[in-house]
Write a sequence for this structure.
């Protein structure tokens, strides 16, 4: 025979279980929102000669992976461009681990499709004490997308440059004077960029081989640590 005390205990256990499930769902919902929000931006620089914008900032949690630029709006009347750095996400339902990872991205001005030789003011959402900067597209660069491939690996500093070692492949990094790769050497990093076809590589690199295979190269447009 079930007593009133036993009924109260069963009811209490059910309430505890329901409360736990609701709290997990609430955390997951908050984390999902944070993945969609703009990541922290601490530095923005425009190089008119190379027609690229260097963006630096920090990751907030382990869910924020492979940061990439996103255009929020372009107002040609006021000549204002608003952008933000967003996270690709790593598929986790929720995150509790805080990280202090950093990132550096290179954004080609041509990819914004701005009118040529017209100054625009560029502003990043969630920027910390970073003033808007002026950018001018000269039309001298191609409007390639930010990246066509993302990967995770170890950034290795070698005598003649850098390479990315993933679980199954090794990529030689094309020299980059914009991103300071040395700050990420020896770390596990998320990398965004473009693979280079062998026909576009210098002849001396084509003559190199690893175990009889041609080396693979990667143009890095974004890198982040804190994995």
């Amino acid at each position: 025979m079930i007593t009133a005390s036993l009924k109260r205990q069963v009811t209490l256990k059910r309430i505890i279980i329901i409360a736990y499930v609701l709290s997990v769902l609430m955390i997951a919902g908050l984390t999902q929102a944070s993945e969609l929000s703009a990541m922290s931006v601490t530095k923005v620089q425009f190089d008119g000669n190379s027609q690229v914008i260097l963006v630096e900032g920090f990751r907030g949690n382990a869910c924020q992976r492979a940061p990439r630029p996103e255009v929020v709006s372009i107002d040609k009347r006021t000549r204002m461009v608003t952008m933000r750095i967003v996270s690709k996400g790593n598929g986790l339902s929720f995150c509790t681990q805080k990280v202090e990872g950093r990132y550096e991205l290179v954004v080609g001005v041509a990819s914004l499709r701005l009118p040529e030789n017209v100054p625009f003011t560029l502003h990043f959402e969630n920027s910390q004490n970073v003033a808007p900067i002026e950018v001018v597209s000269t039309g001298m660069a191609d409007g390639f997308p930010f990246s066509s491939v993302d990967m995770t690996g170890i950034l290795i500093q070698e005598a003649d440059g850098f390479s990315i070692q993933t679980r199954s492949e090794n990529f030689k990094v094309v020299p980059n004077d914009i991103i300071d790769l040395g700050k990420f050497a020896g770390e596990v990093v998320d990398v965004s960029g473009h693979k280079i076809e062998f026909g576009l590589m210098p002849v001396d690199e084509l003559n190199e081989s690893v175990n009889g295979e041609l080396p693979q190269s990667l143009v890095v447009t974004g890198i982040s640590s804190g994995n």
Observations:
- The longest helix spans residues 4-36.
- The mean pLDDT is 77.
- DSSP finds two helices and twelve strands in the chain.
- The two ends are 56 Å apart (CA to CA).
